[in-house]
Amino acid sequence: MSNLVLNTFTSFSFICYPKDLKEAAAADLNAAKFQIYMIIRIPKISIDSNSLKVFRSHIELVLKFKTDFGTFNETIKCQFCDRDHTMFNYEIDKLGKSLKIKDGTEEFTFRALFLQGEFSKPIPAEVLYIGRAYGKNGNRTAFDRLKSHESLQRILADHTYEEVIGDIAIALFEINAKLIGEFIDMTNPSEDLFNLESVLLLKNPIAMNQVINITEAALINFFKPKYNDILKNNFPDKTHTSYNESFKLRYTSVTVEVDQETLNIRLFTKHNKYNPYDLITYVLTP
Questions:
Q1: What are the pLDDT digits (tens) for 154-187?
Q2: Which residue of 1, 83, 197, 243 pairs with 185 in a disulfide if CB–CB is 3.0 to 4.6 A?
């Protein structure tokens, strides 16, 4: 008997506030094609405007975190380059959401969320909604999908009125996949070898849109986000046309890996939390 595992994983990721989606889409984010996105709730993060200390090698700031469980502060050290940091001018906006650094005629703005991601400890991120963006030929990214997104607008509206403390953010992921084949029982090696070769030697073993669809379905079923209505309780399903190639090609299981370390977050819902050391695994065959 052989195992043929479809392993999908995030190869590039990015996080921002909804307000910054347009600017992020215009930036050169390594030309990544973000196909999976998560709308998440994170602590409210701000910069203490009175905490700035400037040294030659770095600056120090205090980040303030507000959650339903209280408020806490953390002092961070930020090094932006190898130059003398005392040569720059610094400005923190009134809300403490951004740090602006001026170098002569050039200006660079860093969100508090970016500073947390680069220089602070991981923060909890409650997954509220998971979606996909691919299009017929892979020509649509999550930025395109989120331009006018009903669920995002609903979440932002609900968040305004709910008695919760935090901010809404968007986590975006580029997805890749690989096939892993192994023998676990050599009682019938010729049949097992044929099954493995019939898939592994295909030029395109599984279409990318099916990879995106099965990744989305697995993540939704794992987290069961509050604002997702489908796929919460019916995955895997052989009749679901959006990812049924996995069954036709006789994959034994699908595994999903999410890089939350790069974003410096810890993904969770009331139903589940993601452990980066454990694969999200679903068996596709009995």
A1: 999 999 888 788 999 999 999 998 887 664 554 5
A2: 1
DSSP string covering 203-227: SSSS-HHHHHHHHHHHHHHHH--TT
Peptide bond just before 236 cis, omega within 30 deg: yes
Tokens of 124: 């909890």
- Is the whole-model pTM more than 0.90? no
**Contacting residues for 81 by C-beta, under 8 A, at least 6 apart:** none
Specify whether the CB–CB gap between 130 and 36 falls below 8 A: yes
* DSSP secondary structure string for all residues of the chain: -EEEEEEEEEEEEEEE-GGGHHHHHHS-STT----EEEEEEE-EEEE-TT--EE-SS-EEEEEEEEETTEEEEEEEEE--SSS-GGGSEEEE-TTS-EEEEEETTEEEEEEHHHHHHHHS--EEEEEEEEEE---TTS---HHHHTTT-HHHHHHHHHHHHSS---EEEEEEEEEEEEEEEEES--SSHHHHHHHHHHHHTSSSSS-HHHHHHHHHHHHHHHH--TT--SSSS--S-TT-TTSTHHHHTT--EEEEE---TTTTEEEE-SS-B--TTS-EEEE---
pLDDT at residue 204 is higher than 60? no
Angle at 217 between CA 182 and CA 35, to 5 degrees: 95
In tens, the pLDDT along 206-234 reads 778 888 999 999 999 999 999 998 888 88
Number of C-beta neighbours around residue 160 at 10 A: 8
